[in-house]
Specification:
Shape: elongated
CATH class of the largest domain: Mainly Alpha
CATH architecture of the largest domain: Orthogonal Bundle
CATH superfamily of the largest domain: Winged helix-like DNA-binding domain superfamily/Winged helix DNA-binding domain
Order of helices and strands: HHEHHEEH
Radius of gyration: 18 Å
Helix content: 55-70%
Number of domains: 2
Largest sheet: 3 strands, antiparallel
Strand order of the largest sheet: 1-3-2
CATH topology of the largest domain: Arc Repressor Mutant, subunit A
Distance between the termini: 46 Å
Length: 119
C-alpha cells in the first residue's frame, strides 16, 4: 500500500473523530522528527503559516504537543516556535478508541430513536 493511500485512509478515520487531516499530518511528522519548528512544519508538509498555527494550537489544547518559544537574536526578529509530541502513539490510539466507542453509543441511541419513531 502506498504512503499516500495510508495517509488518506488514516485521514478519513481521524476526520470522523474530529481530528483534521492537517492535525494528523503534523502528529505523524512530529512522531518521526521528535521536535520541529513551525517553519520546518510549514516546509515539510507544504502548509501555509496560518494553518500550522491553527492546527498546532488545537493539538496543544488537546494535550498532544508541547510548544516552546525561542528568541533567536536578542531583540531582533520574531521568536520561533518549536513543537514536540508529548503523548505516545498508544495514548493517541486509546483516545481515538474512546471516541469510537462514544460514537458507537451515539449511533446505537440514534438507531433506537429512529426505530421507535417508525413504529
Amino acid at each position: 500500500m502506498k504512503y499516500s493511500q495510508n495517509i488518506e485512509e488514516l485521514s478519513s478515520v481521524f476526520q470522523l473523530l474530529g481530528i483534521t487531516r492537517t492535525e494528523m499530518r503534523i502528529i505523524l511528522k512530529l512522531m518521526e522528527k521528535k521536535e520541529m519548528s513551525a517553519r520546518d512544519i510549514e516546509r515539510d508538509l507544504d502548509l501555509q503559516q496560518p494553518y500550522v498555527s491553527i492546527e498546532t494550537q488545537k493539538l496543544f489544547k488537546r494535550g498532544w504537543i508541547r510548544e516552546r518559544t525561542v528568541r533567536v537574536s536578542s531583540n531582533r526578529g520574531r521568536p520561533q516556535k518549536f513543537y514536540t509530541i508529548v503523548v505516545s502513539p498508544d495514548t493517541i490510539e486509546r483516545e481515538l478508541l474512546e471516541k469510537i466507542k462514544e460514537n458507537e453509543e451515539k449511533m446505537t441511541k440514534l438507531k433506537r430513536i429512529i426505530s421507535e419513531v417508525n413504529k
